[in-house]
Design brief:
This is MerR family transcriptional regulator. By secondary structure, this protein is mostly helical. The protein is about 65% helix and about 0% strand. The protein folds into two domains: about 70 residues, Multidrug-efflux Transporter Regulator, Chain: A, Domain 2 (Orthogonal Bundle); about 140 residues, Orthogonal Bundle (Globin-like). The chain is globular, with a radius of gyration of 22 Å. The termini are far apart.
């Protein structure tokens, strides 16, 4: 019964069509911006009204959402078509990836807000302050430095090498696919470590977590607290938990514990 309703809904949605003005109203995107997307071939009309006005179907509304997600992640317009082509091959996996990136950014922004509150309290009340805490959450990327320039004892290989390649705004289609493949390899290796009975503090597991830390650094440079809190988020946030459960029912907790150990010892 539910399947029948879903199929009927798809049939109805497939018949729905929208004008550019409809899309402006639905999405909040300016008409001039939509026209630019059309000129660049990123959006396409699906049919025409009797008066010749272009109409756009549901798939174009979804494509517009992907365009906006990519713009939020600083994908250059000249590379947008390539990204969309690859992302639409597996839209659900793409959405999961987008969600993970945005949640990690939210966590970093919240940390910056906490730093602002800390600094405000110091200035208003004159409380004693460890001045290194003035910079918690402020990525070294903001100062043109490479990921890993945090003084962690085993992170020298992260400093300055491939700085431009690590900037997501400059990624090519191949870079994007590579980072997704890298994450998948990390999670699969952790699953094998779990099944082998290795504890989160085992050197082999910590080596895998080192790779995970470097992967996170593709997006921003986490402090000790942010990286540890990110592990907690993987367990507490349902969508993350479901994502890792696909690999292994206990992966989220295993990853969290290993990340905390890495953060305490290496960051």
């Amino acid at each position: 019964m539910d399947l029948d309703r879903t199929n009927r809904r798809k049939e109805v949605l497939g018949l729905m069509a929208y004008t550019l003005q409809d899309i402006v109203r639905i999405s909040g995107v300016r008409l001039e911006t939509l026209q630019e997307f059309l000129q660049q071939g990123l959006l396409h009309g699906s049919q025409k009204k009797e008066d010749g006005e272009e109409l756009y179907g549901e798939e174009q509304l979804l494509r517009l959402q992907f365009i906006l997600f990519n713009l939020e992640q600083d994908v250059p317009m000249e590379e947008m078509a390539h990204h969309l082509e690859e992302q639409e091959k597996d839209p659900i996996a793409t959405l999961v990836s987008h969600k993970q990136c945005f949640i990690e950014k939210v966590l970093r922004i919240q940390t910056i807000v906490d730093t602002i509150d800390l600094t405000t309290s110091y200035l208003k009340n004159g409380e004693k302050l460890d001045f290194e805490r003035l910079y918690i959450g402020l990525s070294s990327e903001d100062h043109g430095e490479a990921c890993g320039d945090s003084g962690a004892p085993e992170e020298a290989e992260l400093s300055r090498q491939g700085q431009e390649d690590e900037d997501p705004s400059r990624w090519s289609k191949e870079d994007y696919l590579s980072t997704q493949k890298e994450a998948d390899g990390i999670y699969l290796d952790l699953c094998r470590a779990m099944e082998s009975g290795l504890t989160p503090n085992h050197p082999e597991v910590q080596s895998i977590i080192h790779r995970h830390y470097k992967w996170v650094c593709n997006f921003y440079t986490p402090s000790q607290k942010i990286y540890s809190d990110l592990g907690e988020l993987y367990v507490e946030q349902d969508d993350f938990k479901k994502l890792y459960d696909v690999y292994h029912p206990g992966l989220a907790e295993y990853l969290r514990d290993a990340m905390k150990i890495f953060a305490d010892k290496q960051l």
